[in-house]
Amino acid sequence: MIDKKFYVYILLTENNTLYCGYTDDVQRRFELHKAGKGAKYTRANKPIKIVYTREFDTKSEAQKEEFRIKHLPKLKKLELCNI
Question: Is 6 exposed, middle or buried (0-12, 13-18, 19+ CB in 10 A)?
Fold first, then answer.
């Protein structure tokens, strides 16, 4: 059996904002965001590129990290992404 991996990702949007989420397939999720079928936020703030990803063994770990990142100030998120 192949173990499923989960990822936390951060997207940079056209208006220079950041969006953080988690998924089991970053590229597929990015394509959904670009097509306007991802999160409500990315429908209004079009994503232009993936600026950060991190892999986790469990969905729970990924969700906890997503929560942590979402509560960071923007400057800390930019540092995390090396922007």
Answer: buried
Q: Are 29 and 47 in contact (CB under 8 A)?
A: no
Taking the C-alpha atoms of residue 34 and residue 5, their distance in angstroms, rounded to an integer, is 22
Q: What is the reported pTM?
A: 0.94
The helix/strand/coil state of 53 is strand
Domains of the chain: 6-80 (3.40.1440.10)
Q: In what side-by-side order are the strands of the sheet with 47-56?
A: 18-23, 6-13, 47-56
Q: Give the pLDDT confidence of 40-55 residue by residue, as tens digits.
A: 999 999 999 999 999 9
